[in-house]
Design goal:
This protein has no helices and twelve strands.
């Protein structure tokens, strides 16, 4: 997959702000702090369904991250849309598992206690490093 927004004719709202720090990668869950984007840093907390999109300057390379001060392109996605997100290293999910913020821009399975789920995994795998999964947002 070479794009973050996977739903054909996606209805996501696109935003642009500067990166507050280096390390945002397309597919990271992000939030806004002091007028800049940063990776969502609080595990299992409520969050907007905002994901960093691919950089225009790299012709859509989804593995090249943003640097501090660079303009970050972000999509805010409605329920039912699918995104190419990042699963936290070492995390295991199955198709249909609920996922939530992993606290570092990645996602984790909610486990038996469903807290602040943002979507369903549409992939079955165990993450090794930066591993991409398809997520259907709720």
């Amino acid at each position: 997959m070479s794009t973050i927004a996977l739903t054909p004719h996606s209805n996501h709202v696109r935003g642009e702000l500067k990166a507050g720090a280096s390390g945002i990668v397309p597919g990271h869950l992000v939030d806004i702090v002091n007028g800049t984007y940063r990776v969502h840093s609080s595990a299992v907390t409520a969050c907007a369904k905002m994901f960093a999109l691919e950089k225009i300057s790299t012709a859509g390379d989804i593995d090249e991250g943003y640097i501090s001060g660079e303009t970050v392109f972000v999509g805010s996605f409605p329920a039912g849309e699918r995104v190419n997100a990042l699963l936290k290293s070492g995390e295991t999910v199955t198709d249909g598992a609920l996922v939530t913020s992993g606290g570092n821009g990645t996602l984790v399975a909610t486990g038996a206690t469903v807290t602040n789920a943002i979507g369903y995994s549409r992939s079955s795998l165990t993450a090794s490093g930066s591993t991409r999964i398809v997520v259907e947002l709720i």
